[in-house]
Specification:
The complex is a heterodimer of chains A (54) and B (238).
Chain A lengths: L10 H43 L1
Chain B lengths: L1 H4 L2 H32 L13 H28 L2 H33 L7 H22 L3 H15 L2 H11 L19 H43 L1
The chains are: A mainly alpha (54), B mainly alpha (238).
Amino acid sequence: MALDLDLGKYAVFVWPAYAVTAVVLASMIADSLARARRWRREVERRETDAGGAR
Amino acid sequence: MIAALANPQKFMSFSRWAAPVLGVLAAVSIGAGLWLGFAAPEDYQQGDTVRIMFIHVPAAWTGMFAYACLGGASFFSLVFRHALADAAARACAPLGAAFTGLALVTGSLWGKPMWGAWWVWDARLTSVLILFLLYVGYMALQAALEDEAKADRASAILALVGLVNLPIIHFSVMWWNTLHQGESVFRKGGSALAPVYLWPLLIMGVGYLALFGALWLVRTRAEVWRRRARALALKAAG
């Protein structure tokens, strides 16, 4: 199946729509993973600190 | 299942494998959907702009689905006062806002070449804009109240009130005379779309919903950890 990537006169509307989507989805994925990592590490650090203080 | 997952420990062990599984499903579906979407011939009326449909419609579906999830989590939060429901609601709103924002922007980029206008105050567009503003209002309300328990309760009420907008969005194209096209995928008598467009659209829809599911789980996990870190900090402060 050949891909039709020549969008002719509509390229100025279709490509920006795909570009915005790619940027938003990528930032959403990056932000979600970064948040999870950050707070998991924070919990681990605090648990280690609490363990050491005992 | 919901009762079992309401236990934070069970939720954490479930989401640990469910999030990556949904992530892989999303990547495969979106990859296949994009391929089929660009392999489809251009539409005889809409030309190549028909390809915007494959990212516009799934974004709108997911934005609405996320709001139903936000409403569900808010209901559990208000009725059962469950901490995990609060975490799930908090985690859901930014994702729903992003998908709804994408539906608005990609719709605008489709509207200009097809209707000759970036925006019209038609019932479908306006009700989706209200959905976006509900998400923004929900997040602003949470950020504005310092007491997290109060913020969770107030925003849960806002989320539940906003649920009324979902059927309005769905039926807007039937109740009012809109520039936006009517129901074309899930309607009585079968889809109005040719299979060559319907399949990539449905596959992209599965991909978007799976991506939302994966990220919702990841963000809820982050929120559970954030709350645990805060509790540990309070305990350490004595």
